[in-house]
Amino acid sequence: MQKMPKWADVALIPLLNLLIAFVLSGLVILAIGENPIKALQTMITGALGSTYGWGYTLYYATNFIFTGLAVSIAFKAAMFNIGGEGQAMIGGLGVALVCLYIPFPHWSVALLFAMAGGAIFGAAWAFIPAYLQARRGSHVVITTIMFNFIAASLLNYVLVNVLRPQGEMNPQTAAFPEATHLPTLHEVLAPIGISFSKSAPVNVSLFVALAACVIVYLLMWRSRLGYEIRAFGLSQDASVYAGISPFKIIMVAMLLSGGLSGMMSINNTMGEAERLVLNSVEGAGFIGIAVALMGRNHPFGVLLAALLFGFLYQGGSELSLWTKIPRELVTVIQALVILFTGALDNMVRGPVERIFIRAAKRGAN
Amino acid sequence: MDFLTIIQIADSALRLATPLLLACLAGLFSERAGIFDIGLEGKILASAFFSAAVAAATGSVWLGLLAGVASSIAFSGVHGLASITFQGNQLISGVALNFFASGITILIGTAWFGLGGRTPSLSGGQRFSPVELPFANAVADVPILGPIYSDLLSGHTILVYVALLMVPLSWFVLYRTRFGLRLRAVGENPAAVDTAGVSVIRLRYAAMLIAGTLCGLAGVYLATGLAAGFVKEMSAGRGYIALAALIFARWRPWHALYATLLFGLLEAIANRYQNIDLGTFVIPVQFMQALPYILTVIILAGFGGTAVAPKAGGQPYVKER
Question: Membrane-spanning regions, if any (chain A) (predicted)?
Answer without folding.
Answer: 12-33, 53-75, 87-104, 110-128, 140-160, 200-219, 240-264, 276-293, 300-317, 329-348
